[in-house]
User: Fold this.
Amino acid sequence: TPSKGSISYSVQQKELSKDEAPYRIALASPYLELVEELTALEFLNFHLKFKAFISGLTPLSLLALAHLEDARDKQIRNFSSGMKQRLRLALALASDVDLILLDEPTSNLDPQGIQWFQQLIKEYREERTLIVGSNFSEAETGFCKHQLELKDYK
Assistant:
């Protein structure tokens, strides 16, 4: 059983350095920490210092996309778990990156939030690689073209 290896990251046949790669990857996970002392709008402006949004999106339009426009001046520490998850997901899918990693994306979302997630995927996944870590919930993986079950590789 292999116990070590290496990972390389390339875009259009050009290998990126380990310093460049993080700027081309977005991650959303229910346990991904947010800067809770910041307001939602401050957090999005902070994020923009590291990663751009896809064309046409601004911090305010991203808040609207995540149904958080009324919480723009609210500290993230005061968000519900569902609001935090919507912010994480919208931020990952709105970032101008080539690879998006989603871990248990519908965690903390109510049925309406799950429908929102599915619509977000339809609108923002094109021309990018999307990897979803899930327990194969149809809500989380129904849009996937390929599925890999880790239990098949034990």
In short: The chain has a mean pLDDT of 90. The chain has one domain: 22-153. The first helix runs from residue 40 to 47. The domain at 22-153 is CATH 3.40.50.300 (Rossmann fold).
